[in-house]
Amino acid sequence: MSELAFGEEATSRFRQAYVAQFGPAQSGDQLYEAVSAGSRFPGQEHWLPLFHEQLETLLDYLPDSPLSLDHMTDQALADRHAMIEEHYQARLEAGETSTFGAPPYKPVPPASMYVSDTEWRQTLAKRRVSRLSAFESDDLKGTVRDFSGRPGRSFAPERAAENTNLFEAAAQHIRALAQQGKRTIVAAWTPGARERLATLLTEHGLAGVKKIESYEEALTIPAAVPMLAVIGLEQGFETPDLAIVAEQDILGDRLVRPRRRAKKAADVITEATSLSVGDLVVHTDHGIGRFAGLRTITALGAPHDCLELVYHGGDKLYLPVENIELLSRYGSDETGTELDRLG
After folding, report:
1. Which of 156, 187, 210, 315 is 20 to 30 A from 252, comparing alpha carbons?
2. pTM score > 0.85 for this model?
């Protein structure tokens, strides 16, 4: 799978667009030579517009769809456009000089790769757009609908108090919401978390809890009955007729630590010996390096078998073989691939 078009037509289009954009290709231009030869060049997606007559966006495939934008959209877009322009200018300045004997880097203009601010505003003008906001509005034209939503209660004080039972406080609050006539739903992240919350809340006085699978099902249940559902919300909220109590409101932020399956010694040795000296590898933290072989080094008075990785400038990193899961093979070993710099 690739974002790039391949084949004779795409190659011809690239060559013409490349020359039109940057002038005649210089001798040793590895990108131009690789594409002309029909082979892949690492990172050639950065020249994506040169392979296509035009680029599409998701919205081009959904011509009649309405859009909903949250209140941070404009700021996020402005920050993104500023970052794109900053990177482009930096590459232009860096590309004025040759690096390690390679031809200068030639970035495509941002307008050919990304949706510009003007294009984005033109797109919005043609569509039905709803903007969401966390703030109240003094709307005089009647175009704002106020759902009277408010952040839900956080049980952080109860979690911090030594002499307060967290789940009794949560059960009491949920009962109070239901007694106010609000349809009350406790949102858990997973079915397993829902089961645990149901047990804990029931044990601490919340009777008659009903597990539901959808909001449609919730509407068929009397508002006085507290409900439990699997909904991925980080924070609960309340409206005049609905209250959502999120799992994190009660228990605090989730700590997600994916378990790594312990590797058998034989598997580690097999993976290490499957690498050949000179292979390019990617370290999770340090990026692209070159495998230089297995080495035994002494640390804290004991010998350790390590993989020797060479990085830009000749810097070396010694990775214990038992941590080989931090490495993956680099997808291509084309000549000219630049190694990352440690640090």
Report:
1. 210
2. no
